[in-house]
Every structure is written in C-alpha cells, then in structure tokens.
Amino acid sequence: MHSSTARADQPESLPQQPWLRRLPLRSPTLPPAEHTNLYVIGQRDLLLVDPGTPDERENQRALAVLEELADEGHRVRGILLSHHHFDHTSGLTQLRRRLDVPVYAHATTAKHLHHLGQPVDRLLDEGDVLPFAPEGLQVLHTPGHAAGHLCLLDRAGNSLIVGDMVASIGTILIETTDGGDMRLYIESLRRLQDLAQQAALRLWPAHGASVAAGAMLLAAYIHHRAMREEKVMAALSHGTASLLELVPRAYDDKPDVDPFLAARALLAHLHKLRDEGYAEEVAPNLWSPRKAY
Ligand SMILES: [Zn+2]
What does the pLDDT look like over 211-252, one tens digit per residue? Predict the structure, then answer.
C-alpha cells in the first residue's frame, strides 16, 4: 500500500543522511512483518534503537556491522528502547553484554523491564535531546501503542524514528491488556502528523522500510482508525453483543481477518468509545451503545 524503493528486509541508509542506518533483524513480531529494524544512529558516537531479536545469529550479524563501523572510528555509546514490547527489547541482554553501554528508555518502559530483571540506566522524557545526529535527536513522548512509547526527531535529516506508531509493513495492534490506549494513540498520531506536515518528515518505522511521505502515512493511519471506529459504532447499533459477535460486523470489509486478533483490536476501540461515553460494557464482555455517535 505504501511504496518505497528500499526493501523491508534490506539495510537502508540515505546518502544525504549517512548518520541514520536501518538494519532489519529477523524477530518474533506480528506477521506479516518478520523483522524489527535496529537503528544505528550517529556520526561518530552511535546510538542503537530497539534491539528486538533474541536470535543469536541475527545479533551476531548486527555486531559484525558495528565492528565494521568501529574500524571507521565509530563507537556505540548507548541503547535506546522505543517501548517495552518483546520484539523491541529481546536482544537487549545479548547486545548489552557485548557492548557494555547504558540503556535509555521512558520511565514506564523502565518499570516493565525492571520486572524482567533488565535495568534501564537513563530515563528519557519529552523534550530531552540526545547528541547522536548533527542537530541532535529530540525525544518525543507518544503514548498509545504503549504508555512509555518514545519517538526521535532528527531535525537535520528531516526524519522521525517512529517505533511502533506506524509501520510500512503489517499493522499496529493496540493491546488494552498491555497498556495500549486507542484514544491516546490517535492523539499521538495527530501530533506526529502535524509535525510531519510542517517539516515534510520522512518516517523510519520499527517494521518495514522508511516512508518519504510521512504526513500521508500518518493521515492514512488516522483515517483508517476513524473508519474502523465508525464500523464499531454501526456494529453496536444492532443491540447488545459480545466482542466475538461484534467482530464480523465491525470487520465486514475484511472477511479473512483472524477473529481473535481482530477482537483484541476491537476491544481497544470499545474502550475508547466507552471513555468518550458512546458505548458501555453492560455485563462482562457484553457491549451496548450508550449515546448517539
Ligand atoms: Zn510494539
């Protein structure tokens, strides 16, 4: 749907922006995506973003690339996690052991990782600037997909490293059981869309190749979620129904959808509609409309 000259599974770097390198590593992520991009950012000192694979051979491949960069005088100085999900953090142990560098993340991400015995060394939040690009990397807090989700704005490269806010392959799932919040997610998408529009930003997602028309991709995501929300409200208008009864109505445009995956996505929409007063859970797992949409 979103064309790009680079292949999702091939490394990518632009001649006008040599400090930003995308290295896709095979990872346990949501199909049809099969890789998580490890970003290697910096002119001399390097920051790694999202070590997302537990596969030792894939991490060896990453370390070999870093060794080549070391021969050219580069040094890895830190590892940043866009959020806590397994397909963004499961390579942390291996890379940290080999590189011995501090780990950066939002406080909420740090809390999740603390439970897994993975300490975070430096907490980041909105407004922080990291010295890994000609004009630095500006930290944006973009909750919704995960409460501690961070994006990085590279002003010199007119680029936004967007983690799991959008993807150019596959889809972004909002999991209410894991801190996902559709209302916040759409708010964060809108904020990024404004930014992308003002500065004609290119997006670098965690899954898939970079997307030059960043504002357009963000607009498409916002539009798609609004369309789904309307379908959920239409599905509710038939009367009280369970989550799995609502799936075929709310996804009648996607008859091949995995009903359990769709149910998880649908629940995020229902929670948003409930918080806005349009729907209510009248009994466990039974949903009704509450006021006119
Ligand atoms: Zn994620």
Answer: 999 999 999 999 999 999 999 999 999 999 999 999 999 999
> Could you tell me which residue, 5 or 72, shows the higher pLDDT?
72
Q: Measured in angstroms, how far is the CA atom of residue 90 from the centroid of ligand 1?
A: 12
List residues, by chain if needed, whose CB lies under 5 Å from ion ligand 1: 85, 164
On whether the CB atoms of residues 36 and 50 are closer than 8 A, the answer is yes
CB 124 within 8 A of CB 150: yes
CA–centroid distance, 81 to ligand 1, in Å, is: 11
Compute the distance from residue 145 Cα to the ligand 1 centre, in Å. 7
215 strand-pairing partners: none
- Residue 11 CB neighbours (<10 A): 14
Find the 240 Cα to ligand 1 centroid distance in Å: 31
